[in-house]
Amino acid sequence: MCSENLVAALRLVVLSAQIAGGERYLVGGLCAGICHNVIDALTEHCAMRQQFGRPLSQFGMVQRHLALAAANLYALESMTYLVAGLLTAQPKRDLRIESAAVKVFATETTLSLLNDCATLAGALGFTDQLPLERYLRDSWVLGSFMGVNDLLRLYIAASSLSIAGREMCEFVDKLRRPYQNKLYILRETFLKDVRLAMMRRRWRTPAVGATPMPVTERGVRASLLVRDHLHHNLRPLGDRLSRVVVHTHELARQALILNANNVNEDQFSLRLFSDLAIGLFAITAVLSRASRAKSIGIRYHNNELELAELFTVDMLDRLETMVANYKTKDNLCKRIASVILKENGYASASPLTRVW
Question: What is the CA angle 88-94-96, rounded to 5?
Fold first, then answer.
């Protein structure tokens, strides 16, 4: 079956993930502490340091760096809190994929945040007056700690596609035999085109699931519309999130249809699906935390809403661009890499070279 072969070539990755898979989310707590200390130190530095007759904190570029750093830290904390809370409530629950996603997002976000903070600190950031230089030096090992990020990306994508393959196996098998299932293919194609057209024109918010109103374990009928579970200030972002989820689902179906048995060999597609999965998981954690904070009225709840909105808008922009341009970028990368390998190095001529 197509679903049984999705992760056959990645057994070593799955085995290594099983060894420390349940503990990887702890790296998120480590990274959150580092980012928190650095942001506090840089905030004090920007408030005290003066250039051109006024503090650095009054410049727009500095404020932008601080705001994005705080939004990324909020997302990092939200993902770590979510996985830790789920494991506390259900210790036997399998959250290896979520733990790996937290680890990848945490380590890469920490390194990016430290580089941005180094820009604000200037030359002072490389002295021992700020904790930045020590954190920046030590953070490079986080990408390899408890699993290399690139291998974890393959694990996240392959495991997720394996689950999706089991759910869509009947659909994929029928589409791989088009002459025997013409009516089924026409009906599914028509429904997909109608669904995507309605989303593009904002006529309908898609439900993220198979049925509109499932019954939970407690007998409560819960809506599968993301907007119904969010604070009203965050519902437009929930609609955008739903559309990205549907597009990701369509991409997964295309990958399984085109090369169901060899999808784990296309690492360009695996990286795309892993980045989409990590981004969607981060947005889900951020929106749920901010919505709860606003609903129960905890301290700084208005600021949490703005942090969630800033991070979600930025991440959704990246995910939508990723979905729209992935084929072009992947094909360019393949062609450029083939030239580099053929020429045994960087292949480009000087603009001063004469050809006459």
Answer: 100
